[in-house]
């Protein structure tokens, strides 16, 4: 199987639909079906079965997909290494960042890096931190910038030390909170592959905030609004509709909101840091090494 065959099997596995897989390969569905039949003939096994919802991989097909994914990773690593042998800052850089960082922090970082290294091609994935972390585990990206606590076995770098803070338009005292209206972030209901990990991650933060509250107060908060984004929480606060408890990274200095970082009774702050995660082995690639050094110097 060649590289295109490996990509075809990976896309079929991801889409469970031949037409959608063909679209991602920029070929027609009959052309994809013909090539799939040739691979089945070469190996002498069925790769897919059809059902009313699309297609499903057979056990043999699932094994071939794993083989194809390993081949793609090895081929990408080989290409990256060959480029790095020239010790030039060139080639493809694959990074993943959580959505908020991708929207607010990444664009100027990429602009300045590409101005200095115009021969680099950068592929960016944005999404939930859990999705980005999964891409790193699958070796789809060279490095990940995520928010939260992830059990990563290799290299970590603290990009931004984040705190969970009470934010308000006017200065308030913590003792006042039970009597003040609170705009509360509520985890939205999601469907799809990463919905369970998303809900688990954000529910964990909500539980931490709740534990902090009842460590300090013996009455429930006076919640007047439930919203589905931290940005909405902040805008409500800016308009004097109450206070909110959100990660401090969502508040810019020029917004002039009052912040009180949450601290446990033992004095330990409640944090939600932004981390850069990568494999030490990736540093052998010149472009990856240079970009990681650049991020460390800029943050």
UniProtKB/TrEMBL annotation:
What is a single molecular function from GO for this protein? DNA-binding transcription factor activity
Q: InterPro entries given for it?
A: LysR_HTH_N (IPR000847), LysR_subst-bd (IPR005119), WH-like_DNA-bd_sf (IPR036388), WH_DNA-bd_sf (IPR036390)
- Give the record's keywords alphabetically: DNA-binding, Transcription, Transcription regulation
Q: Cite the Gene3D superfamilies for this sequence.
A: 3.40.190.290, Winged helix-like DNA-binding domain superfamily/Winged helix DNA-binding domain
Keyword Transcription regulation set for record:
yes
SUPFAM superfamilies the UniProt entry points to: Periplasmic binding protein-like II, Winged helix' DNA-binding domain
Q: Where is the HTH lysR-type domain?
A: 1-58
The entry sums up its family as follows: Belongs to the LysR transcriptional regulatory family.
This protein's name: LysR family transcriptional regulator
The record lists the organism as Paenibacillus cremeus
């Amino acid at each position: 199987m060649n590289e295109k065959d490996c990509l075809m099997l990976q896309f079929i596995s991801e889409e469970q639909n031949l037409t959608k897989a063909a679209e991602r390969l920029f070929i027609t569905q009959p052309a994809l079906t013909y090539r799939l039949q040739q691979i089945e003939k070469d190996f002498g096994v069925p790769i897919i079965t059809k059902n009313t919802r699309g297609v499903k991989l057979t056990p043999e097909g699932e094994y071939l997909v794993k083989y194809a994914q390993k081949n793609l990773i090895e081929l990408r690593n080989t290409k990256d290494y060959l480029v790095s042998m020239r010790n030039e800052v060139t080639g493809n850089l694959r990074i993943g960042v959580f959505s908020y960082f991708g929207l607010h922090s990444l664009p100027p970082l990429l602009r300045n890096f590409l101005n200095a290294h115009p021969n680099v091609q950068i592929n960016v994935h944005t999404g939930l931190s859990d999705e980005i972390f999964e891409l790193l585990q699958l070796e789809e990206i060279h490095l990940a910038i995520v928010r939260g606590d992830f059990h990563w076995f290799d290299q970590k770098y603290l990009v931004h030390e984040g705190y969970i803070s009470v934010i308000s338009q006017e200065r308030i005292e913590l003792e006042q909170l039970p009597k003040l209206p609170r705009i509360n972030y509520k985890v939205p209901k999601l469907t799809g592959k990463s919905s369970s990990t998303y809900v688990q991650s954000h529910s964990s933060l909500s539980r931490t905030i709740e534990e902090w509250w009842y460590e300090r107060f013996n009455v429930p908060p006076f919640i007047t609004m439930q919203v589905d984004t931290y940005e909405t929480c902040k805008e409500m606060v800016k308009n004097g509709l109450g206070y909110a408890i959100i990660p401090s990274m969502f508040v810019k200095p020029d917004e002039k909101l009052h912040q009180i970082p949450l601290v446990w009774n033992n004095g330990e702050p409640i944090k939600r840091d932004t981390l850069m995660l990568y494999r030490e082995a990736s540093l052998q690639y010149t472009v990856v090494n240079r970009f990681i050094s650049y991020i460390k110097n800029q943050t």
